[in-house]
Amino acid sequence: MSTIKVENLSKSYGDVQALRDVSFEIPDGEFVVILGESGAGKSTLLRCLNGLTQPTSGSISIDAEEITGPRDDVAMIFQQHYIIEQMSAYGNALTGSLNRTSFGRSLLQWNDREDKLAALEALDTVGLLDEAGQQASQMSGGQQQRVGIARALVQLPNLLLADEPVASLDPASAESVMGYIRDAADERNLTTLASLHQVNLAREFGERFLGMKDGRLVFDGYREDLTIDVIDQIYGDIQTESIRSGQEVDA
Ligand SMILES: Nc1ncnc2c1ncn2[C@@H]1O[C@H](COP(=O)(O)OP(=O)(O)OP(=O)(O)O)[C@@H](O)[C@H]1O
To answer: What Pfam families does the entry give (predicted)?
Structure first.
């Protein structure tokens, strides 16, 4: 539920220029997929958006307010689940309210009624309401990732970021988890940016696409504009050979 404006964003790590003069705007509620080869700058862009990395130059604003560090209303889903294995799915989801509750209270589940309702609603969104009491360690990788999504939703974010959220899952689980992320974003009209390696998944779930190469934004457009030639431009020919023959693609 936020408008994002990225202006002339650059980031260098010593001699490595991870982002080069990247600019774009995302209107409220759009679902954006970031594509690019390994090292193209996708994670750096997401880390700048969640305030964990300071850009070398340029700026990012959310609803006209410049990002200067981590914010409670920006949630991130990672490739690794980072969930607490000994805790139930419900307990893990509740930790998303940490920004509103002390960690101790959250661990003891002394949360407000609203937080508990938010946790149950989020578990419902990711199809895990019936498994709310199940210990996370007993769950599959895909279920654990859905718990991670629920936790991000309990944070009540205005901006949802996902860095390779399905990279460690098998193709069927990856598709299912992407579906849950998309549904969660649609239900809550959440502005979302997700980086993905799998071009086919990106085309299935993305609304708008940002293509990155060597730290530059080389494509910004919607599904109908994401042609094979554009994918060639982002990845080179190897990727698209498999797309043409209809195979699953992993960048
Ligand atoms: N903390 C860091 N220190 C030094 N160099 C870094 C750091 N983080 C990223 N880089 C470099 O910046 C460039 C962009 O990296 P980034 O992780 O943003 O790319 P990416 O597109 O997310 O790649 P991947 O898909 O492999 O995660 C790469 O050359 C990478 O080696």
So the answer is: ABC_tran
